[in-house]
Amino acid sequence: MKSLFQDIESIEDHRVDANKDYELADIIFLTIAAVLCGAKGWKAIKIFGEAQLDWLREYRDFSHGIPTRHSIGRIIRGVKADSLVSSFINFSNTVREKEGKEHISFDGKVVCGSKHGDIDALQLMTAMVVDNGLIIYQKESSTKTNEIPVMQAMLASLDIKNAVITADAMHCQTETTTTIREGNGDYVLQVKKNQGNLFKEVEAYFHKSYRDSPKLLKDNYFKELDGEHGRINEREYRLLPITEWFDETEKFKDSFAVVEVQRTRHLNNKTEQETSYYITSLKEDVEVTAKYIRQHWAIENSQHWVLDVTFREDECQIYADDGARNLATIRRKLLNLIKTHPLKDSVAGKMQRACWDAKFRAEILFG
User: Fold this and answer.
1) pTM over the 0.90 mark
2) Element (H or E) spanning 271, and its range?
3) Range of 323's domain?
4) 353 to each of 57, 95, 120, 338, how far by Cα in Å?
5) Which label site among 32, 78, 332, 338 has the fewest CB atoms less than 10 Å from its CB?
6) In a domain, 66, yes or no
């Protein structure tokens, strides 16, 4: 309990004294608890507060009770997003446990419901520890192209020592690999035609190796097979160490190997195939490297899908001031808290239990 409220109380209150009938920490705590129980807007947060006021008062004074929904919205929208994000990052890193090579996946997400008139939808770049689903950093990006410097700034701020960084092909940038290596991390990045010369070189090298070095390819081969509901997914990985034959790879700091991934999907007598290429600084065998490539998309399944389906993030119509940013931060904080609770259940199952069981709700929030 102490750590949560220390976290909340560290958030700066920029209101003038005349507007401080309600303690900022009280309203942030109310909002966190209400969103945990499924609240998606200011009215729902107010209803939760009125219904659970006795429970809320076990932890905070709430001396003036629960404010109106408009006051709740005004207070939360008025919190500086950077202050809330800072407290979130500090909390996330206190529960972060680093064992072996930590896999950190970066990906962008658009909060669709935050678009209103001329106001663009909120776009967030997120860093997630894949093995436990812990979100350790988020930062707003204004456009898709803007994600590149945003990710580089995030990397420079994070402790990535001994970590493996994965991101989509947009982030296959020489500056990004330099930042990662200077932070003593490794990278596995997809190569697409935004790096046209590198892409052509890697593609040509594999064609050459199929012709001239079939044994080398066979010795560095790994295959996965899975599927359900009549769909079969087949993934074949081939890894080749970088040699003097390459020119373009030298621009990517400490690059060590390139990987070809051939994906084949069988469904209803229909077959689809695609080939992807990756560049990495890892000095690992093909099976280990394949794991990082496959698990990169966990951020889509483990975070984005849950935020959209369970928290209904894309349906949230809040957009004014920092409201969308702050609720997005609260959802991600809750996702961390929910995932660190040891009960074996889905995020949705834990949220439903928290709604019904005040003792369990307190366990989620306070540990």
Assistant:
1) no
2) strand 270-280
3) 2-92+318-366
4) 20, 23, 35, 11
5) 78
6) yes
